[in-house]
Specification:
Layout: H1 9-15, H2 17-48, E1 49-50, E2 55-57, E3 59-62, E4 64-80, E5 83-86, E6 92-97, E7 104-105, E8 110-114, H3 117-152, H4 158-191, E9 193-195, E10 200-202, E11 212-213, E12 222-225, E13 230-237, H5 241-249, E14 255-259, E15 266-275, E16 285-292, E17 304-321, E18 326-328, E19 335-342, E20 347-359, E21 362-367, E22 374-378, E23 389-390, H6 393-405
Parallel strand pairs: 2-23
Antiparallel strand pairs: 1-2, 3-22, 4-13, 4-17, 5-12, 6-8, 6-11, 7-10, 8-9, 10-12, 13-16, 14-15, 14-17, 15-16, 17-21, 18-19, 19-20, 19-22, 20-21
Helix pairs in contact: 3-4
Length: 436
Amino acid sequence: MLNDSDHGPTALLRRHRFIIIAAIAIAVGGFWFVHHAKQQNAANVRTRFNFRTNAMAVSVATVEKGDIVVRIPALGAVTPLTTVTVQTQISGVMEEVAFKEGQLVKKGQFLAQIDPRPYEAALAQAKATLARDQSLLANARLDLKRYEDLVKEDSISTQTLDTQRATVGQDEGNVAADQAAIKTAELNVMYTHITSPVDGRVGLRQVDPGNYVTPGQSGGLVVVTQLQPMSVLFSVPEDNVKDVFNQLKQGHTLSVEASDRTDSHLVATGHLATTDNQIDATTGTLKLRAMFDNTDMALFPGQFVNINLVLTTLKDQVVIPTAAVRRGAPNGVQSAFVYVVDTAKSTVSVRPVVLGQVDGEREVVKSGLQLGEVVVTDGGDRLRDGAAVQLPEATAAEAAKERAMKPKEDASGSGPGRRHFRRGQGGPPPGGPPPG
């Protein structure tokens, strides 16, 4: 039987005390986390916003003059100039493999050996046949000479002489055929000694020693890929084709930069070698080939790289950081604009700009800005026309220095011949109230 103490609030709390303690701990932890996040957010806002002056802290840059490199970006595929699948030209048993997988080889370097004995025997037989037929030819020529002398003496018929001449011609043909057979046999013996057809790197071995190989075997013996020089195939839009050909017609060698897949590291620098002869109608692009020395083996066959075709360099352009450019409709018209900083007043104003070429993190400004003006690059998300900003210490110090170098005026800020007039202290100066 159960006691009365097993029922009621005390027993219930005792049975579920661990759950209650866990719930209290979760609630306390959640409250601390929310409170801590609010404190961190408030600290971040205080670092970005000066509550005393209602000014937003910003990063700035000065409008400068510089050179802009015009590049055409593209995606390229590293494509070797030569890729050879080494095949045997005769049938036989593979006796030896003389290369290591991944080895760099030279043209003519020994790769593999096929059992040459059957072909050496065929060569010896061809040479013996040649010797026999050469003897028959020599005898036929001697008979022909005797028949020519006998015909002059009218000792034999002309038909016999003609038959002997045909025999000589037949023997000469047999000798020529034997000589060709010897050359074929010599080639077969030479084909048992397999060499590399190009300079490059061998791939994985496809046939092991001891196997019987035949011409046209699937996969061949090994693949040799040329690595130096290396080419990269890439395509440019047809809108850029005219600019590319204009540069080529003027005799310019266009530089090509290859970067890794993240486009953050320059892999190799080469030059434009050639172009295709027609635009691909399905993609509207023209295929081009760039050549790279690849002395450091940085480009690997089949690799995808980011390509920048350097078209030309624009000299003495008005440039700003790309981070300073914003998009919107500040004047009711959709356009690009920047926040121009008045360093004397620490305020900003909206200025629409007309942009040009982009070079990395810099951009050409065709109109809207003057050299030496200061623009906001970071912290402009909450700005508006006429907003106060807190400049970086270096920029603020330069602005204070410029103000100190200006001619000092009187306390009212008015020009010479004007006297100071304080509001509420006496009437206006003689001659009536000041204008305005």
